[in-house]
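Open question from group meeting: does this chain pack into something compact, or does most of it stay loose? Before anyone orders reagents, we agreed to write out a predicted structure and look at it together. Recording both the input and the output here so the notebook holds the full record.
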Amino acid sequence: MDARVNNLRIGRRWLTIGLCLYLLLASPGAARESVSMPLPEGAMARLGRGTINAVQYSPDGSRLAVGGSMGIWLYDAHTGEAVSLLTVQGHSVSSVAFSPDGRTLASSGRDATVRLWDVETGTLWQTLEGHTSGDHSVVFSPDGGTLAINGWAFTVRLWDVETGTLRQVLDGHTDGVTSVTFSPDGRTLASGSGGWDSTVRLWDVETGSLRQILDGHSNGVSSVAFSPDGRTLASSGRENTLSSGRAAIVRLWDAETGTLWQTLKGHMSGVHSLAFSPDGHSLAGSSWYDETVRLWDVETGALRLTLEGHVNGVVSVAFSPDGHSLASSGRGGTVRLWDAETGTLWQTQILEGHAGSVWSLASSPDGRT
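Structure tokens returned:
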């Protein structure tokens, strides 16, 4: 690994954003970062043991959950001290999510079971069974009362968090469900499907009824995201249209009617992840294939910026809470911090130190870590 490290001092006060990064190894044989290695310059702590698959801050920023091959480590986010280890015997944890009030942690893995944990005591208090495939994603509704679970079984299941009972099975996709998200008001769930299906579906959360089927993607949907006001839904996929000379497209839909109202072009092939700016005016999309991040004006659909510099595919993007900065990461093992207004890469803000690909980013609620 290149021994060079960059000076991580941030020159502007409003750019005091750090990112909680986790390492998901590209393959079981990939080199692991040893816990005995010196910390990269600017890093505050190295958290987790074994392979790391998932990370999330609690809503108040006091806890950090790190899921992986050993279970779930809960850390004090201010001191970096381990609070508890939540173990799932014989199974790696692939996804974690805090409830909006921070009192419950949901986790999933390869054993086709989702577990709900009491964050304060570290005890398991609900086990949600009945899924037919593992490696689910888990997403809480904005009010915390419903948990949505998707996987490769072509369905989305909605569970009552308080009672642990199954409320709805959203059935209709004809391939694995790759992404789900609740609207900000919690009344609508959007789900995207891969492979032969390649549709986005909008569901009524209360009744479980299908409201809309959004067609147009040609090779699977990889990401769906609601704008902060809930009026717009963005979707992207793994379309590779290089052979036909056309650019890959991100689609913006009217979330109420399901009408397509913008197509955002720029990437030369599949868009892996999407993120709206906090004010909803900009949308960022990253590409695994053309190694760029692009920012569009949501209102006009115009391409505002193309952020270049990654030497491998870009798999994750995240805005700072104030929207001034954008972080991107990918297979090259680095994280880059950009001025979201000008597209400038901050001179000192290439964050190095990971021994493999960085697949996910999360910012603390106060934007400082």
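Observations to bring back to the group:
The radius of gyration is 20 Å.
Residues 1-32, 242-246 have pLDDT under 50 and may be disordered.
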